[in-house]
Amino acid sequence: MPVTSSAAPSPAARPRPRGGRWNRPPAISSLPAAWRLLAALYSAVGLLVLATTLLPAASGARLSWAVQLLDGVAVAAAVVMALLARRLPRRLLNPTIAFSTVLITAAVLASGGGSTAVAYACAYLAGPIFCRFVVQGRDANVQLALTVVQGVLALSLVPDVGFGEQVVLWGVLVILCAAVDRLIGALEEAESDALTGLPNRRGVERVLREALAAAGPSDSVALVLLELDHFRAVNENLGRGGGDRLLVVAAETWRPLVPEGHVLGRFSGDGFAVVMPGAGVAAGTALAERLRTALPREFSCSAGSVGWEPGESASMLVSRADAAVYAAKREGRGRTHQHPGTGSSARAIREAVGRGEFVVHLQPIADLRDGSVAGAEALVRWQHPERGLLPPAAFVPEAERTGAIVELGGWVLQEACRQAATWPAVPGRGPAYLSVNASGRELQQPDYSARVERALRSSGLPPGRLLLELVESHYDNASVHLGANLHHLRTLGVTTAVDDFGVGYSSLDRLRRLGVDVLKIDRSFVADITCADQEAPLVLAMVAMADALGLRVVAEGVETFEQARWLVRHGCCYGQGALLGGAAAGQPPTATGVVAGPVPPPRARDRGFGTVIGP
């Protein structure tokens, strides 16, 4: 179905579960969790009723031994359900709940009537309310009707139970079921995507957490992420309505293809997710391929499939799924990438973050004209308990590959901002700004800019003193989250730079799309400057281009006085490298002692760069 209209789809065109609440899916999607909850309900009610048979008030019951036997059956059934929670199928839920109603009915008939019968009948409340959470709306209503019919007959057959008592009992049951339905409906609305009718990110994450909580060390859980290719271009060419229509088409196409027990949801502006409890990564990859190829021919998507590893949290699993999607995009889009797994390295990095084994070292960024320190870049080191102090090259590539960079980068940002907030804000007395690396993986997290804002707020560092260096890694220029994060960061007043420009994924189109303020020339180009009269045409071209675009320039890898003097003479007045000081713990120096003058007049793009970076 081609996207031909820019009008937003009408509510009637949006897919909704047929039958409304009558056929709504269960609120608790994890089957093992449902069985464990039912086991707890069986045991709690059984033990409570059993206790009443041992009290003096229950000594008048005609068949207290029968009630005790029924309670023993209930407790035994609870033990079986708890032990087999991961193996019992969903189709047995309804019969098991109905069996609990039969047990309660038998206990009421054996009670001898009167207040004891009414007390036992209160156990009827548990089953229908429990049903509202674990079975479809239709089945829950059937269970309610069966419970009321059995209960009315049982209480009518025993003596000393009046009509008024029954009215109160069943009235309370119906009211409670209606209230629970309303609460579940509110939860569904909060976790439902208004456009597609699918669970939104909040709903998908809840389902994923439940699935992981219910999974044992030998169990499998797969996660599939699918992102529509060129979604921003659809919005730009056909308007927001065209993009909405594409999302609806994807939801309508994929919904019937997802097997029962698995949950399809809209996970981001242009992405969907499928949570697959009990399925391995191979099954996830196969489903991703079926969904991807089911789209109409004029559309395409990139998919990533991952399998849960014991000890892995929901956020870690999502990070790896993100990595798989980005790998699919790097490979040319319109394909599925299966993540190979983290192994022990990613877990070791995440655990090291929790143990506080990482440290932040600061490298000065200096004004080459007078040697003053303009800023400082935060560089992470791993104080490994066995291998000593490790440089970034020993662990950052693996963190990037596995997604652990999200947790590591978040810690570096928080710690660096905390340190920078203590620096004097007086020119000439210390670095005026802090520079922190932001990887492509981090920038494509939906909440990255919000995490930056929280780090600034908690540390007290003014946004204008933070420079985020966008690392030249594999991120998608057209990513919805990338654009939204950069826009939010600019709104906050945070300055951005392209790191290692000239290598990797550098392009003029990337500069245009990212809208950065600073360009950092990669050290490999600076290394070509071997003497003061070296030509270095590529560096000259980069400086001229930055000047034309109004960008400030910082040269990386400045190691000799000749390089510093050449850079100043050709218009690049800021640099960092061994000549100006290496990375070290503690507050950076106020000056480097390197003066590469004569000092040229400041250009407009450099004005204020050595104090506080302005917009």
| CATH fold-level assignment of the largest domain | TIM Barrel
CATH H level, superfamily name of the largest domain:
EAL domain
Main-sheet strand order equals 6-7-9-10-11-12-13-14
- Helix run count: 21
Estimate percent helicity. 40-55%
Q: Based on CA inertia axes, which overall geometry fits? A: elongated
The total beta strand count reads: 14
| Known CATH architecture of the largest domain | Alpha-Beta Barrel
Mean pLDDT: 82
- Poorly predicted regions: 1-23, 611-615
Name the beta content range: 5-15%
CATH class of the largest domain: Alpha Beta
* Rg, nearest Å: 32 Å
Give the N-terminus to C-terminus distance in angstroms. Answer: 45 Å
Describe the fold and architecture.
The protein has three domains: 20-190, no CATH class; 197-341, 2-Layer Sandwich (Alpha-Beta Plaits); 364-377 and 406-606, Alpha-Beta Barrel (TIM Barrel), CATH 3.20.20.450. With 615 residues, it is an alpha/beta fold. The model is unreliable at 1-23 and 611-615 (pLDDT under 50). The chain contains 21 helices and 14 strands. The chain has helices at 31-53, 64-83, 93-109, 114-121, 126-134, 137-157, 163-190, 201-214, 231-254, 281-294, 314-330, 343-355, 396-402, 405-420, 440-443, 448-459, 480-492, 508-514, 523-526, 537-549, 561-569; strands at 221-228, 263-266, 271-277, 301-307, 336-338, 358-367, 373-384, 388-390, 433-438, 466-470, 495-501, 518-521, 552-556, 574-576. A hairpin with a 5-residue loop joins strand 6 (358-367) and strand 7. 48% of the residues lie in helices and 14% in strands. It is elongated. The strands form two sheets. An eight-stranded mixed beta barrel has the order 6-7-9-10-11-12-13-14, surrounded by five helices. Strands 2-3-1-4-5 form a five-stranded mixed sheet, with helices on both faces.
